[in-house]
Structures are given as structure tokens and as C-alpha cells.
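Reopening: C-alpha cells for the adenosine-5'-triphosphate complex, inputs below.
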Amino acid sequence: MKPSPIAPPATLALLGGGQLGRFFVHTAHELGYKVMVLDPDAGAPAGKIADSHIIASYDDHDALLQLSQHCAAATTEFENVPATVLEQLAQTMPVSPTADTVSIAQDRIREKEFLRDNGFNTAPFIPVVDENDLNNVPDDIFPAILKTARFGYDGKGQARVASAREARAAQREFSTPCVLEKLLQLDLEVSVVLARTTDGECRCFPLAENSHRNGILDVTVVPARTTPALQQQAEQMASELAARLGYVGVLTVEFFVSDGQLLINEIAPRPHNSGHYTIDGCVTSQYEQQLRALCGLPLGSVSLHSNSVMVNLLGELWFQGESSSEPSWQLLHQIPNLKLHLYGKASARPARKMGHFTVIDQEPGAAITAAMAARKAIGIN
Ligand code: ATP
Ligand code: MG
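Re-run output (same inputs, fresh job):
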């Protein structure tokens, strides 16, 4: 028999307290739930607004005991939570995503091999467990990127290499298992955020077009400026992948479009920066969908009610003068169809994600023009 949905005022456990978690907490509160966050960082943005914040490591015995005693279900906003912790929590409550799927997504070697073994195209790659794996690599993989298998984000743990010699030097530097991946000429980068329930119902949010700067997401345009055929193919691939994983929860699939072909770059077992636009542009946000899938509620509509352009606000914006100062938000408040979101992080650092804004408009061109003008006005070059 299907378990009955988890109803408010139940408390939900959230592993990880970053900005993705903060939006989950906002949503949970709107729907009448409570949230207990586990994150070792006392200043974690989601911890500050949650009903309680356990400041402890993810595998802390007492912390996990508290979650088991007080929470009706558990989810994560961070893929580097030890999979064993999710497994342990699953003994007392529903957990989505599951330990199995998170353990694939948190290791680039497992992730890429899973994709290849299930027939999904990726950039050509070679797993590099140690330097010896670089002895006989084919020359045509260069230029390439060496990426650490674990803990990389926002382009961290990556080195561009032009030869096996350079790859060996980079591997020595990282001294951890890596993936060597061919550097592709990209036509476009796109992503699909989807939600899937325990019954296998799957809904994809509209395709997002992403541009990056220095390996960090900069702007997301929705709908992506591509053909309906490519949009449909990306959705189909993402849904099929979620089904192969037996995935429950919100999953993000990042794609490269190279030579007109869709390749899967990586997956994230959680809501995603490129899905922030769903807060202001869609009937249901990716965070509400995460909660719905977790609590056994029916999924919400993924319909896009407005063309949306999301712009990330990184820490360098706070360092435009001699010393650190708050950007001039009034420049953004003057734009009536611009929605500003700041994450409440205590201090700004270059490359740190501090907030974002989304411009929504009924005209796709107008949304892009206004967002790019706002981006420039606030001081992003
Ligand atoms: P995220 O913040 O998405 O977790 P990440 O650190 O895991 O990022 P990737 O998604 O692997 O890193 O790479 C970041 C960006 O670098 C990509 O979105 C793309 O712009 C560029 N990039 C990565 N791999 C390749 C490649 N093989 N060919 C061309 N560009 C690439
Ligand atoms: Mg990425």
C-alpha cells in the first residue's frame, strides 16, 4: 500500500545549509512544515532561518539520532553528504534522493561510467585513479580538462591540460582520483531540472540555457534559445536517466551541445543554480517540487508563466572600490519586473555566490535586454 503523504506541521530534515537549502526552508514554511538543518557551518544560510540548526558534521552520531527522533523525512541540498548517512536515516524515515543515487552523482568516475554504460553520450573521458593511468592516453583527447572525481564545484578542482605531460603534472598536484575529459567546442550549454516521484511520475521544467564565466554559472535564459527538437531530446534524455537511476526527488542534468549533439556533462541530485528561475518564472518552484516529491504529494505544474533571465551575483560585486561595501541595490529595485534574492551570507568573497536576480517578462527579448542592462548597471562587466 502506498504510504500516506507527510502532512504539516511535520518536521523535515535537510542535510546541507547553503542557499539551495535556504530556498527549501522558505518553501517548507510557506506550506506549513518545519525544517531541521544539519550543517557543520554555524553561518549556513539555511540554518539561519530553519526551525533548528544542528551544527555538527554530517556523520555525527548524536546529530543523526536527533534527526531520526524529530523528522518525518529527509532530503539534501548538497551532494557531498556521505551516502552512508542517507542510508542510515533511511532506516527510520523516507529519504530522497537515495544514498545510491547520491553516491553516483558525488563521484565523477562513477557518474561518467554510469552514463556510458547506460548509453548516454558524454565528452570522451578517461578515469585517472593515479598517474599510471595517464601513460597511454590517446593524443586526440587533448586539449583536455583534468577534473577531480570528488568535491569539485564552480570549476574548482579542474585544470586545463594540453598534453599527457601537463596532465601528469596536474594529477600530481591534485593527488586524488580524477577524470580526464576532452575539451569540447561548445555551441551551447543547457540544463534540465526535473522531479520524479516514488510512482515514477516525472516532470521536467523548461530547458534552461546557461552561460558560464570562469567555470561558474553567470546567466540562465529560459526558454533556451534552441530548437523545439533539441528541447524535447534533452527532456527525454533527462527523464530516461532519472528512470534508469530509479530517482526520487529533484534531479538536474547539465548538458553540452557540441556539433549540434547533446552530451551529458554532469548530474546534480538536488535543485540547481540553473533552476533558480523557477521561483519567479514557473507555477511551481524546484524547491516546492523537492518538498512535494519528498512528502509524497502530487507534483506541481512546471509551466513557465513568464520568460525568465537569471543573473548570479558573486562576491566580487562587493569589492568594487577600495574596501568591501554593499552593492547599490536601488539600481535593481528600480526595475519593476526584477526579483532580487540575497542569501544572507555573512561575508562576501570573490567567486562566492551571494545572491541572484531574475527578470521576468512576457516578451523573451525584453527579459534578456532588461537583465543584461541590470547586470551592467549593478557593475558586472
Ligand atoms: P558545477 O558548479 O556545475 O558543479 P563543476 O565544477 O562541477 O561545476 P563542470 O560542470 O564540470 O564543473 O564544468 C564547469 C564548466 O566548465 C562547464 O559548465 C563548462 O562551461 C566548462 N567545461 C567543463 N568541462 C568541459 C569540457 N569537457 N569541454 C568544454 N567546456 C567544459
Ligand atoms: Mg557543472
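The longest strand covers residues 249-258. The CA atoms of residues 31 and 126 lie 45 Å apart. Marking as resolved unless the reporter disagrees.
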